[in-house]
Amino acid sequence: RILIIDFGSQVTQLIARRVREQGVYCEVVPSQRAAEAFAAFKPNGVILSGGPASVTDLDTPRAPDMVFEADIPVLGICYGQQTMVAQLGGGVESGHEGEFGRADIEVVEDSKLFDGIWEKGHKYPVWMSHGDRVTALPLGFKAIAVSEGAPYAAIVDEARRYYAVQFHPEVAHTPDGARLLRNFVREIVGLKGDWTMAAFRQEAAAKIREQVGSGRVICGLSGGVDSAVAAVLIHEAIGDQLTCVFVDHGLLRKGEAEQVVTLFRDHYNIPLVHVDASEVFLRELSGVSDPEQKRKTIGRLFIDVFDSEAAKVGGADFLAQGTLYPDVIESVSFHGGPSVTIKSHHNVGGLPDRMKMKLVEPLRELFKDEVRALGRELGLPDGFVGRHPFPGPGLAIRIPGEITRDKLDTLREADAIYLEEIRRAGLYDVIWQAFAVLLPVKTVGVMGDARTYDNVLALRAVTSTDGMTADFFHFDMNFLGRAATRIINEVRGINRVVYDVTSKPPGTIEWE
Ligand code: XMP
Question: Which residues belong to any copy of the GMPS ATP-PPase domain (predicted)?
Answer without folding.
Answer: 195-387
